[in-house]
Design a protein that fits this description.
The protein is an alpha/beta fold. The protein has 2 domains: about 130 residues, Alpha-Beta Complex (Aspartate Aminotransferase, domain 1); about 240 residues, 3-Layer(aba) Sandwich (Aspartate Aminotransferase, domain 2). It is built from 14 helices and 15 strands. The strands form 4 sheets. Strands 2-10-9-8-5-3-4 form a 7-stranded mixed beta sheet, with helices on both faces. Strands 11-12-15-14 form a 4-stranded antiparallel beta sheet. The protein has a two-stranded parallel ribbon with strand order 1-13. Strand 8, helix 7 and strand 9 form a beta-alpha-beta unit. It is globular. It binds pyridoxal-5'-phosphate. The site of pyridoxal-5'-phosphate has 14 residues, from helix 3.
């Protein structure tokens, strides 16, 4: 890579960090048991609840997002219990692994990569098997770019004695997720996607009925004990030593998001998504998720032709343009390229991403794709 250009991370985690957040994280540590830090955690709590659209506490955990998923499986269910795992990709499969590790009995609803679920099928499965105690699902399946029908599935589970656990790691702060209004029982996110922070924090919130369940369950997991964390959270503390710098950075990142207003953040994410889809289609690429309403707002994936594996194109985009794109995960490794546009990313970054991809294709498309992309961006913002 020539040394004179910036490196741009257009990846579905980690994502770029705003200077305001980096500066706060570089400030001297506060002691995690003293008042100044407790004030920060108290304010974080108010801002996190607003972000999750919930009245419940939002518990920060010192772990990557998967720690939040682990905490959900270990605190809400007992070994031997039946749960429905809806999977349509790499992260859905992680739910299967975590549920199995917890000793649960997962009934698996599997869809092809790039596809989503029909809430009526989930309703039928729950009707057919009243022993099912929970449903695990992604909100956004980051390996494919599919947005699952979370609100509809929540409507099905809330009528039943079934806890709905939603992995919102690539959705919260990227597209609207309204925990209480929709009836999600457990909502999880992580720091390094839409939240404009480094990796290292997970967040988990439980509905009142999920807390009731957590009070009965023995997590059999020393670190991820949500009852302990809830008690500490009520005192503006974390149970173990706090990830102090990250939680200080979180305070700044949440302040920024709420200064912009979440509605405006979502509008920007929507506009970037339209920009990416229009630009990629104009380049002649095959959008992996075509159905309206079923593509996620934080990344756009394309299906590569058989004779054009993702690896060399992603490598060239980095070498020549300093842009980090990502290939697929698992089975999709060489079949998909993912162009992410979540977090502290704007139209100019995304234009750089589109150019880097176009530049790296064996037959370079002409520049009209960029004009089409930018027109779509402004049109989506109503400009
Ligand atoms: C990134 C991601 C994860 C995993 O998060 P880690 O921070 O790597 O543990 C899980 N689920 C989804 C949907 C993700 O996007």
């Amino acid at each position: 890579m020539s040394s004179i250009q910036a490196t741009r991370m257009l990846t579905p985690g980690p994502t770029p960090i705003p200077d305001r957040v980096r500066l706060v994280m570089a400030s001297p540590l506060l002691h995690h048991r003293k008042d100044a830090f407790k004030t920060i955690l108290a304010e974080n709590q108010i801002m996190l609840k607003k972000l999750f659209c919930t009245e419940s506490p939002v518990i920060p955990l010192a772990s990557s997002g998967t720690g939040g998923m682990t905490a959900a499986a270990f605190n809400l269910f007992e070994p031997g219990e039946k749960v429905l795992v809806a999977t349509a990709g790499y992260f859905g499969n992680r739910w299967v692994d975590i549920a199995t590790m917890r000793g649960l009995n997962p009934v698996i609803l599997r869809k092809d990569a790039g596809k989503s679920f029909d809430p009526e099928e989930i309703r039928a499965m729950l009707d057919a098997d009243p022993a099912i105690r929970g449903v695990f699902m992604q909100i956004s399946e980051t390996s494919t770019g599919v947005l699952h029908p979370v609100q509809e599935v929540a409507a099905v589970t809330r009528e039943r004695n079934v806890l709905f656990v939603a992995d919102g790691i690539s959705a919260v702060s990227i597209s609207p997720v309204r925990m209480d209004e929709w009836g999600i029982d457990c909502l999880i996110t992580g720091s390094q996607k839409g939240l404009m922070l480094p990796p290292g924090l997970a967040f988990i919130a439980l509905s009142p009925r999920a807390w009731k369940r957590a009070e009965e369950v023995r997590p059999q997991c020393y670190y991820f004990d949500l009852i302990q964390e809830r008690a500490s959270c009520a005192k503006n503390q974390t149970h173990y030593t706090s990830p102090i710098s990250l939680l200080m950075g979180l305070h700044e990142a949440l302040t920024m998001l709420h200064e912009f207003g979440m509605e405006n953040v979502f509008k920007k994410q929507w506009a970037l998504t339209q920009m990416a889809r229009t630009g990629l289609a104009a380049m002649g690429m095959n959008l992996f998720v075509k159905e309206e309403g079923r593509y996620t707002w934080g990344l756009t994936s394309v299906l590569m032709p058989e004779d054009m594996p993702a690896g060399p194109i992603v490598a060239k985009a980095f070498k020549d343009c300093g842009v980090i794109l990502t290939a697929g995960q698992g089975d999709l490794k060489d079949k998909v390229i993912r162009l992410a546009h979540m977090g502290w990313i704007d139209w100019a970054d995304l234009a750089a991403g589109l150019h880097a991809l176009a530049w790296s294709l064996p037959e370079k498309p002409k520049g009209a794709y960029l004009e089409a992309a930018l027109d779509a961006y402004h049109a989506a913002l109503g400009e």
